[in-house]
Design brief:
With 291 residues, this protein is of the alpha/beta class. The chain has 5 helices and 18 strands.
Amino acid sequence: MTAARRLGAIGHAGYAGLAECLGILARESPRLGLALELEAHLLADAPGAAALGAPQGLGGMISLGGDGTLLRAARLLDGADVPILGVNLGRLGFLTSCRAEDFAKLLPQFAQGQFRADTRMMLEAVAGVAASGAPGPRLRALNDIVLHKGGFARVLHLRVLVNGEEIGVLAADGLVISTPTGSTAYSLSAGGPIVVPTVESILVTPISPHTMAVRPILLPSDAEILVQPYDAPEEVLVTVDGQTGTTLGAGHSLTVRRSAHRVTIARFPGTSFFGTLRRKLGWGGLAERDE
């Protein structure tokens, strides 16, 4: 007998439609030849499912929630080449693959590989101590890496170098370094441009810069960016995809480059990047209503 393919799933407990989607997964997975694995807090709602194991060897990953849940799924995969089906249980769902009401119809297509693979680049950040060169934690981001001061209403001075050449010392409330995927997230709120996901690049967007001369910069995807807090006695916070991160102290630096790993998001007919812009962000006029 052929072993069932492993299907992982994670979910956000704050959404009302979560239990219904878990019921669909528990009912349909055996019929589709899938061995369902769930996060520990979801197991009670899906009898017969196992605890989510290592990402290597998964045939697919389901994220039940919103964009934040999909970003968490990408982080949990830890570079494993596993496609993600994002089910939007919330309002925006810019990154997700389908609405909750379409999940039962699209799950068999996902299980049979009948989808378009939307491959997105990721960023990798490594913190280090400038004096010793000792590396710190390695962080991966699908959306962005943000340097900021947390709750302190103070300007940051950040020395920024690209491929070893100094851009300058930026005076701003913070700095967003984003992928094209993340160009529609925090970077957009900070005044950065929208970048089509297939245009692989790295976007550097200052947050509330203290001079009109400082503007967002679009860099090639092979650029290496080094950021050092300049004359900052307190710790600088580094947030990855708005969910996790680290801190930089005096003498520390952060190096950001394109990751060798990528994220694959399942797409189905009738969805496109510009359609999502119109529907979710109101690009070109009023936002379209989901029918």
